[in-house]
UniProtKB/TrEMBL annotation:
This is peptide-methionine (R)-S-oxide reductase. It comes from Actinocrinis puniceicyclus. Residues 9-133 form the MsrB domain. The keyword Metal-binding applies. InterPro entries: Met_Sox_Rdtase_MsrB (IPR028427), Met_Sox_Rdtase_MsrB_dom (IPR002579), Mss4-like_sf (IPR011057). It catalyses: L-methionyl-[protein] + [thioredoxin]-disulfide + H2O = L-methionyl-(R)-S-oxide-[protein] + [thioredoxin]-dithiol.
Length: 139
């Protein structure tokens, strides 16, 4: 796939911390229950840490108790790219940022969570930034 944001691996290494690079560019996984957004309930927009693409919104985030932030739907279906992942002897669906190709996590279906889509986008906190949205009512 051709991505809007194109950088060499050296450019990504210069911009990302070693941990961010391992997850975003090498499809790594952060340890469970260690990410800054795992239990966050702040109202806001979640963006790709590598390129700033809007990926998820807080109203689709839910507590799955799996150790990583979970969402039941992306902000826009074109925001993410889904790719079959056969690593580690499993068949899963990898979630990547559609703008820069960075690894975000995986999506799972049919796990019984009470969500409108029956999907769990299990996303590494380190692959995201969160921009809070002011909840104050307009006067």
């Amino acid at each position: 796939m051709t991505y809007e944001v194109k950088k060499s691996e050296d450019e990504w290494r210069a911009e990302l911390s070693p941990q961010e690079f391992r997850v975003l560019r090498q499809a790594g996984t952060e340890p469970a229950f260690t990410g800054e957004y795992t239990d966050t309930e702040t109202v806001g927009v979640y963006k790709c840490r590598a390129c700033g693409n809007e990926l998820f919104r807080s109203e689709t985030k839910f507590h799955s108790h799996c150790g990583w932030p979970s969402f039941f739907d992306p902000a826009d279906s074109k925001a993410v790219e889904l790719i079959e992942d056969r690593a580690f002897g499993m068949v899963r669906t990898e979630v990547r940022c559609a703008r820069c190709g960075s690894h975000l996590g995986h999506v799972f279906e049919g796990e019984g969570y009470p969500t409108p889509t029956d999907q769990r986008y299990c996303i590494n906190s380190i692959s995201l930034t969160m921009e809070p949205v002011d909840e104050a009512p307009e006067s």
